[in-house]
Amino acid sequence: MKRVGIALLTIGIALTLCGCGGERQSVPEPDDADSSVVGNGQKVAGSMEEYIDQALSWQTTTDKERKVLEQAKQDGELSVSDYEQAWSDFKSCMVERGYPPFELANYNGIYDMPQLHFTGTQDEWERYKDDYDSCYFQISAIDAVYTMQVGNPNLYTDMYEAIADCLRREEAVPLDYTAEDLRRESGNDQGNGENPYEYFDPKDPVFRGCKVANGWSSAYADDEGVDLWHGDGGNRDNE
Predict the structure, then answer these.
(1) How far apart are CA 161 and CA 38, in angstroms?
(2) Could you please report the per-residue DSSP string of 141-195?
(3) What is the C-alpha separation between 42 and 61, in angstroms, rounded?
(4) Predicted TM-score (pTM) of this structure
(5) Alpha-carbon distance 102 to 8, whole Å?
(6) Of the residues 57, 121, 126, 163, which has the maximum number of CB atoms within 10 A of its CB?
(7) Tens of pLDDT along 141-172?
(8) How would you classify the pairing of strands 115-116 and 218-220?
(9) How far is CA 128 from CA 24, 116, 135, in A?
(10) With contact defined as beta carbons under 8 Å apart, do 82 and 72 qualify?
């Protein structure tokens, strides 16, 4: 399954609690590829239809999701409206568990949890992780298929190759920009305000959308965030 999910949020909260600045990010290595080889062309499936079949086979895929995915197979794609409805359902699920209404982060049309300003207790954080997992796994198959569809339509296994391809398709980088270029530049991103990327700013919405669509969630210390514990859930600037 594509998303790292709560593991990324755990890292993000740890950074928020320690007051660390810069970019909050975690870059998972591909499970089935040699991490020393970037951009080797391996693919997770032979086609989007085959990938949808994989999602249909996941144990966490709900009956509601299966109906949406079967329709996507017939239509040749998963609709924006079905994707947006899934994330709306996710927010409703969280609110039903006692959290205040909140706005999702939107990176060039790709949704993710916003940066969180954690003001609760350890028990509240543990409960949040359980609640997040319960709600997210109700939409995870739809999220995975849609973000693969728009962020990695060539179905690359390697995350860097998928993001580099996304950036080329979005015309954010030249056609000769490679996965190795991205890995090298991102390895120099220290989150200190300096821009190690040659062709774009790290906060560029296209870049962030390509990243989030491929399971690389990121946020910055000055991003708007939400307090789901002792606030009203509204977005506010990080102070």
Answers:
(1) 7
(2) HHHHHHHHHHH-TT-BSSHHHHHHHHHHHTTSS-TT--HHHHHHHHHT--SSS--
(3) 25
(4) 0.81
(5) 19
(6) 163
(7) 999 999 999 999 999 999 999 999 999 999 99
(8) unpaired
(9) 19, 11, 10
(10) yes
Task: Show the tokens assigned to 214.
Answer: 């491929």
Question: From the DSSP assignment, how many helices (H) and strands (E) are in the chain?
Answer: 9, 7
13: buried, middle or exposed (CB in 10 Å: 19+, 13-18, 0-12)?
buried
Q: Which residues does 209 contact at the CB level (< 8 Å), separation at least 6? A: 107, 108, 109, 110, 151, 166
Between CA 192 and CA 182 the distance in angstroms is 18
Question: Can you give the three-state secondary structure of 32-66, one letter per residue?
Answer: CCCCCCCCCCCECCCCHHHHHHHHHHCCCCCHHHH
Rounded mean pLDDT of the chain?
83
- Longest CA–CA span in the chain (Å) reads 49
**Token couple for 47:** 């086609």
Residue range 14-66, pLDDT digits in tens: 434 433 333 333 333 434 434 444 557 899 999 999 999 999 999 999 999 99
HSE, CB side, 13 Å, CA atoms: give it for residue 233.
11
The secondary structure of the chain in percent helix, strand, coil, rounded to multiples of 5, reads: 45, 10, 45
Helix H, strand E, coil C: the string for 160-171 is: HHHHHHHHHHCC
Name the DSSP class of 99.
P
